Amino acid sequence: MPLRRTAPPPWAISRRQLLGRRIAYYRRKAGLSQDQLADRIGMERRTIQRYEAGSRDPRYTDLLLIADALNVPLADLVRREDPPAPGSP
To answer: Cα separation of 88 and 55, whole Å?
Structure first.
């Protein structure tokens, strides 16, 4: 796959990081470790770690698998608002 010629704009990087925080929030809410989530969807823990850190863009299919494994609608993962603070309902 060819590499992107230019870096993504700051707003895209910010949204990728927000997505990572949402994945981590719903994973913790489900009581799963990164290893457990990765096992459920057939990928490496390091991939989940990169998604949550916002250092890698997940593919659409991966987002579908993550949402299904966490039992949340895909829309909840990709919405623009920050996830609730830790310890919130």
So the answer is: 26
